[in-house]
Amino acid sequence: MTSQVIEDEQQFYSRAQSYWKRVPPTVDGMLGGYGHISSLDLSSSRKFLQRFLREGPNKPGTSCALDCGAGIGRITKRLLLPLFEVVDMVDVTEDFLAKAKTYLGEEGKRVRNYFCCGLQDFSPEPGSYDVIWIQWVIGHLTDQHLAEFLRRCKRGLRPNGLIVIKDNMAQEGVILDDVDSSVCRDLQVVHRIVRSAGLSLLAEERQENLPDEIYHVYSLALR
């Protein structure tokens, strides 16, 4: 549990905010120096998401998606805008959202809102989103705040809407990273938080072909 590894919650959040303010607003910056894995990551994400968009009567719509921890819009640009009519982005770092407006190019006109906010304080508009995509950011929330955020996301879904978490998973327990002030949880812990938020796991997939030295990365589809 994060309560066992985070001594000061306020400091946990403020240190993360300070860390990201120092990160260059580039794809390489968003991926901690692993910019070369971006295409591989996005290609796998597209296949994972399209399984649901193509399936029968309970498939999500394609009107509106939300990109959480969006950074400069790497996922918005290459995954969400090609599949959805409009996209909203939320990120805690103002400079990233400012950069997104040029990085996204012409298609960025279909980004409806740029919300500058930490996810612990963010509430998606109820009944607004077909898909809420949450990638490489849950480690910046405490267990309690993550569960509360997921409950708010559930309320933010349109009929047949879907929440996708894609993130690093530890082999066991919860590991604190002092560099960027985040935690990495094992799958069991994430499953427990998901259940406590009143969500069901529809599918789970491990990302293949990543460098050996980084954490295992899993995608979880929730509803």
Overview of the molecule:
With 223 residues, the chain is of the alpha/beta class. It has one domain: 3-Layer(aba) Sandwich (Rossmann fold). It is 35% helix and 26% strand. The chain contains eight helices and nine strands. The protein has helices at residues 2-5, 9-21, 27-30, 38-54, 74-80, 94-103, 143-156, 187-196, and strands at residues 64-68, 86-91, 111-116, 129-135, 157-169, 174-177, 182-185, 201-206, 216-222. Strands 3-2-1-4-5-9-8 form a seven-stranded mixed β-sheet, with helices on both faces. It has a two-stranded antiparallel ribbon with strand order 6-7. Strand 2 (86-91), helix 6 (94-103) and strand 3 (111-116) form a beta-alpha-beta unit. Helix 4 (38-54) crosses helix 5 (74-80). The mean pLDDT is 97. Keywords: Methyltransferase, Nucleus, S-adenosyl-L-methionine, Transferase. Its EC number is 2.1.1.244. S-adenosyl-L-methionine binds at residues 69, 74, 91-93, 119-120, 135. It is found in: Nucleus. This is N-terminal Xaa-Pro-Lys N-methyltransferase 1.
Write the layout of secondary structure elements.
Layout: H1 2-5, H2 9-21, H3 27-30, H4 38-54, E1 64-68, H5 74-80, E2 86-91, H6 94-103, E3 111-116, E4 129-135, H7 143-156, E5 157-169, E6 174-177, E7 182-185, H8 187-196, E8 201-206, E9 216-222
Parallel strand pairs: 1-2, 1-4, 2-3, 4-5
Antiparallel strand pairs: 5-9, 6-7, 8-9
